[in-house]
Amino acid sequence: MVEVSEELIAGLKKKAVTLRKHIIRMTHNAQSGHPGGSMSACDIVTALYFHVLRVDPTNPTWPDRDRFVLSKGHACPVWYAALAERGFFPVEELMTFRKLNSRLQGHPELGTTPGVENAAGAEGQGLSFSVGLALAARMDHKAWRTYCVLGDGEQDVGQTWEAAMAASKYGLDSLTAFIDRNGIQQEGRTEDIMPLEPLAEKWEAFNWHVLTIDGHDFRQIFAAIEEAHRTRGRPTAVIARTVKGKGVSFMENKIKYHGAATSDDELKLALAELEAMEAAI
Amino acid sequence: MTGPPWKQESQRSYFAKALIDLGRRNPNVVVVGADTTESIKTLDFGKAFPDRLIQLGIAEPNMISVAAGLAAAGKIPFAATYSVFGSAHTYNVIRQNVAYTNLNVKIFCSHAGLTVGPDGATHQINEDIALMRGIPRMTVLVPADGPETAKCVDAAAAMKGPVYCRFSRTNVPTVTSSEDGFAIGKARVVRDGFDLTLIGCGIMVARCLEAAQLLEREKISARVINLSTVKPLDLATIDRAARETGGIVTAEEHTVVHGIGAAVASAIASNHPVPIAMVGVQDVFGESGEAEELLRKYGLTAEKIVEAAHDVVKRRDR
After folding, report:
1. Which of A243, B164, B182, B289 has the highest count of CB atoms within 10 angstroms of its CB?
2. Rounded distance, CA B128 to CA B14, Å?
3. Which tens digits make up the pLDDT trace of A103-126?
């Protein structure tokens, strides 16, 4: 199903750098927002929007499109960046992020931003929403699939597990959940705030098909998606091991950049690093 | 509108039947439940349409978000459970996933207010109207009886956007008839009068009608309005009542804090202020007891409405 050539991987890597530059610029321009978790999810979002999702930027509400749900709404810079690069709205509009009268709200708003499929911000609601979508697809005998990206902080939320039970009860094999396992939430390491491990076993205990991958390796992301497509009768949870702030050395694995924008000096450093990375691809 | 003695009927039965009729007409109507489907009779819908009742267990936040997802994909989901769970327990899920998204989710809840009875205060939510009318984009319905509950089902499905509708566990007097007109956003004058206006919702409409009869014996002519839509409020009908009758009593099986009394007071204060008195739960929790006992103890009776009417008339004529 998914052809994975060297050329494709190189193109996606470049696209992911472009998205990361947008994330840094958007949050810097707003002097707020959540760069860390946007960058950790960046390769998953890139893989989905630039090679997997059947979506039509000229018709964002095309009924047969695949659905992408961002449950960890604070990571919307990566979503907006992907949507803009995919042609849902002009790239220049990204700089209105978090500004008054913008279509790019601080957390996703349904109906305002072309291509945005759910509202999120209060954590832990996106998987339930995705269950509703997948149930509707099944009732209507539609082939479209639902992909939900969750944060690992959201694994604290009870509703996430309510949704996990419902998805397995109804055997929603058109639903794939990516858990962006960057190990950091707002106030610290997930294992200090509220230990999640053994996380894969938790999802297995909820009767999901569970895969653990490197969430920055496109081949592993595609292999997981393929396996999810092949899996019948159960939803698939992909625990994607990621690095918070991935792509900018001084931001990587730093709690601070969960919810802090770069300074002017940091912006220059970050963009220089990303440009060097792009040149090396 | 009929007069007493009224038939006592179950709003849930009307709800369940209307839902099945609607389901026959519209294949996109689905129901999500949370381990209360037998009690609130949505199980009947599930028997008629086995694939269209989604049972989600004791997980109301999930139920609301699943409904939102279904709506986002074109379904018309009715999320139905007890009012305390379908409002307070799920408030921010409704706010973010249903109202902020402006999705076509219909939250229909039984077991509102004190008349839940012996289950006690944990289940007697007297704050749901306050919560729901505070959310932008939310339509809030409180049907007076069974026939009006059925009309709420149809009207909610016919409009686009989120709806919250609350009704009672107990059998209630059937004060409307199936032939009476109904429209969301329209308050109905169910008895005309000139000296003051009694505005009730839900089970208190019957008590307002009883109070109007008691007042008539004292030569006080009371208009009665059935405020089955709390939001959007029918400002024209309320304003006309204030101008033409000069005094208002509100009556609700709900706290007087941010309920229909507060909504009406705020509306008339901006247009034509007149004396107002509010019959309702006075900022306290309920307790176990039979429905009628509770209504008496907490002052939700025709006699209390009459007392409030005297107070309003006295203040106006002072």
Report:
1. B164
2. 21
3. 999 999 999 999 999 999 999 999
- A-chain CB neighbours of B72 within 8 Å are 110, 117-118, 129, 132-133, 136
Chain A interface disruption, residue of B35, B60, B96, B105, most A CBs within 10 A: B96
Please check whether residue B3 lies inside any domain of the structure: no
In a domain, B74, yes or no: yes
A139 CA: distance to closest CA in chain B (Å): 8
For the stretch B57-78, pLDDT in tens is: 999 999 999 999 999 999 999 9
Q: Are B54 and B30 in contact (CB under 8 A)?
A: yes
> Which structural domain range is residue A32 located in?
6-280
Q: Are residues B81 and B215 in the same domain?
A: no
CATH number at residue A136: 3.40.50.970
Q: Cβ B75–A139 below 8 Å, yes or no?
A: yes
> Which residues are CB-contacts of A183 (< 8 A; sequence separation ≥ 6)?
A152, A189, A190, A191, A244, A253
Asked whether the beta carbons of residue B72 and residue A118 sit closer than 8 angstroms, the reply is yes
Q: Model-level pTM?
A: 0.97
* pLDDT tens-digit readout, B194-236: 999 999 999 999 999 999 999 999 999 999 999 999 999 999 9
Residue A1 lies in a domain: no
Task: Count the domains in chain A.
Answer: 1
Among B151, B189, B183, residue whose Cα is nearest residue B167: B151
Burial bucket for residue A61 (CB in 10 Å: 0-12, 13-18, 19+): exposed
- On whether the CB atoms of residues A137 and A144 are closer than 8 A, the answer is yes
The CATH number for B280's domain is 3.40.50.920
**Residue B62 and residue A166: Cβ atoms within 8 Å?**
yes
Is B1 a residue whose pLDDT tops 70? Answer: no
Inter-chain residue contact B57 with A111, CB threshold 8 Å: no
Q: Is B287 a catalytic residue?
A: no
Identify whether residues B19 and B167 lie together within a single domain: yes
Which pLDDT tens digit goes with each residue over A28-42? 999 999 999 999 999
Task: Indicate if B229 and B267 belong to the same structural domain.
Answer: yes
